[in-house]
Amino acid sequence: MMARGPRQRNQYRRRRSGETDYSRRLKLLKSGNSRAVVRVSNTRVVCQVVSWKADGDKVELSVTGDDLVARYGWPESNSRKNIPASYLTGFALGKAAIAAGHDEAVLDIGLAASSNGNRVFAALKGMVDAGLEIPHGESVLPGEDRLNGAHIDDSYASVVEATKTKIEEAF
Questions:
Q1: Across the chain, what does the average pLDDT equal?
Q2: The pTM is what?
Q3: Is residue 13 part of a domain?
Q4: Is 150 helix (H, G, I), strand (E, B) or coil?
Q5: Which CATH number covers residue 78?
Q6: Sign of dihedral through CA atoms 144, 147, 148, 149?
Q7: Which residue has the higher pLDDT, 3 or 156?
Q8: How many distinct structural domains can be found in the chain?
Q9: Fewer CB atoms inside 10 Å of the end CB: C or N, the chain?
């Protein structure tokens, strides 16, 4: 809805279209740390380390679910956005961030629902396991059986471990 009259202001376009929660964004930026951004699309999960600049945000590092297939041996037929793939994508980003000199960040989940154990928090668990310092509560993280894919198939755990080993070897 557009503002009408002399005492009303138009909202920012990204607020009108429901893409950005500016009050949450301001809280994250006031921390002064880089943001660990996690977004889940229809086909993959995207994890990024983003820093604020006056002329716009700068993406320092980025790892996607497609990188798991291309670089780390994740099977082509497996999902690139389920909980194990989200965990491994977060783990790869955490290792890359540590190698690039980033040791702490704050989690930015955007407009995603913050239900306990979801894919965003699986990526968070991966980043924390890789050594990145991110403030969080332990109650939101998914269980180990879900991270290893035991809820999907019994053979998933070996694929997750093999991919995790390749990520560790790369850094």
A1: 93
A2: 0.90
A3: no
A4: coil
A5: 3.30.420.100
A6: positive
A7: 156
A8: 1
A9: N
* pLDDT for 7: 86
What pLDDT does residue 93 have? 98
Q: Supply the DSSP string of 4-27, one letter for each residue.
A: -STT--PPPHHHHTT---HHHHHH
- What is the per-residue pLDDT across 58-98, written as a single tens digit (0 to 9) for each? 999 999 999 999 999 999 999 999 999 999 999 999 999 99
Comparing C-alpha atoms, which of 59, 56, 49 is closest to residue 104? 49
Token pair, residue 98, equals 């540590």
Is 2 inside any structural domain? Answer: no
Strand order in the sheet with 105-108: 58-64, 45-51, 34-40, 105-108
Structural domain that includes position 43: 18-170
What's the confidence (pLDDT) of residue 1? 62
The Cα 75–Cα 69 span in angstroms is: 6
Helix (H, G, I), strand (E, B) or coil at 115: coil
* Whole-number CA gyration radius for the chain: 18
> Is residue 10 in some structural domain?
no
